[in-house]
Amino acid sequence: MINVMIQSFNFARIPHIIFGAGKLRELYKIFPKFGNNILIVVGGSSLKRYGKWDEIISMLEDKSINFFSISVSSEPSPALIDECAQKFRNKNIDLVIGIGGGSVTDAGKAISAMIPKPDSIKNYLEGIGNKTHDGRKIPYIAIPTTSGTGSEATKNAVISEVGPNGFKKSLRHDNLIPNVAFIDPELMISCPMSITAACGMDAFTQLLEAYVSSKGNPITDALAFSGMKYISRNIISACSNGASNIEVRTSMAYGSLMSGITLANVGLGIIHGLASPIGGFFKIPHGVVCGTLLAEATKMNIKMLQEQGPAGKGALKKHAKIGALLISENFKEEGDIDKYCSILIEILDNWTQELKIDKLGKYGIAKEDVDKIVENAGLKNNPVKLSKENINAILINRI
Which of 104, 146, 328, 396 is the residue whose CA sits 20 to 30 A from 84? Predict the structure, then answer.
């Protein structure tokens, strides 16, 4: 028997998770515990279109709950958060509820954190402001309606200011983890194919990057591998004839949740290192950025790990295990590493094509923008060091 030393690690707390089809009904038992004055942050019109909004409002009214609502239609900006926090700062809000995609979840998280503060969120954003948030917030319940960012399980809210000098940065504190996360796959059935595809690719990217992260540990490895199993079996179906299948949607929701838990603990890699500047400079959905770069970045990481020789074997083996998972095989033989790594790349390429993930050029990103993006990118916890030339090649192949 070979003894393998388990390195020391930390594991962040997670919210109280309520998971499963129809579980939204339990919300009505929980929110009165926080108080009678609620702010609801919602996304587009899907809740109203499919009757869930009327159901929620009816329950609030039945329990004589006073509520306000605001709509978030794009990734949250500092201006939006400042405006909302100022508007509700003197309304004695007892609870914030975010019901929507990742942007709504982040917006609600940020608003709950900034209502107690008298100044701008910019002062507290990593790499932008000079203040550290103390974690004081209004209690927050996150209810995702897409399977993508996993923000319902993380301690950070991503805030974007788009433009030539734009940024995509986080407001972060351990206490900003939602108090409760409701993951009800019934809310995701109405999600359009294009959004389901981009969000699904984002979630898989987060799982893959967490699994091969240089800071991975046995707990996050197990959770990430489990999440990849469920998403890989269902992502194509969720974007086609299985869109209304609750089992398919439940699997996607589970994978997304696992992606949030794992990224919060071991970080991500080059794809998300590129997503930050791309999302700051250009108006492009985060899921599209991750989905369109996933195959190319994985291909480059594998190539550079192979060039490392024995030093890259551990990370290569992890990539190979993912490749085996995607064809429902168990990785056994060390000699099969290259075989399964090739399978992984091929399947990710196929997903990118089959799910019609847009290239970066559709959003105005050109080859002349690559150097600026790379200058502002970070490797994060990528499993191998990449040169500027390597990163340039990843981007150029998806323009």
Answer: 146
Shared fold status for 16-188 and 193-396: no
Angle 47-161-265 (CA atoms, 0-180°, nearest 5)? 75
Task: Determine the 3-state secondary structure of 38 from DSSP.
Answer: strand
- 222-277 per-position pLDDT tens digit: 999 999 999 999 999 999 999 999 999 999 999 999 999 999 999 999 999 999 99
- Looking at the DSSP assignment, which residues form a beta bridge with residue 41? 70, 98
CATH number of the domain at 16-188, please?
A: 3.40.50.1970
Q: Which residues lie closer than 8 Å to 157 by C-beta, 6 or more apart?
A: 76, 106, 107, 109, 110, 113, 151, 170, 171, 172, 176
In tens, the pLDDT along 150-180 reads: 999 999 999 999 999 999 999 999 999 999 9
Do 19 and 254 form a contact (C-beta atoms < 8 A)? yes
Q: How far apart are CA 27 and CA 44, in angstroms?
A: 21
* Nearest alpha carbon to residue 133 among 153, 160, 112: 112
Question: For residue 307, which amino acid is it?
Answer: E
Q: Where are the domains of the chain?
A: 16-188, 193-396
Give the sign of the dihedral formed by CA 177, CA 253, CA 265, CA 125.
negative
* CATH match of 193-396 with 3.40.190.10: no
Pairing of strands 37-42, 95-100: parallel
- Strands annotated E in 33-118: 37-42, 66-71, 95-100
CA distance 121 to 117: 9
Give CA separation, 119 vs 104, 129, 131, 146, in Å: 21, 11, 11, 31
C-alpha to C-alpha distance for 85 and 178, rounded to whole angstroms: 17
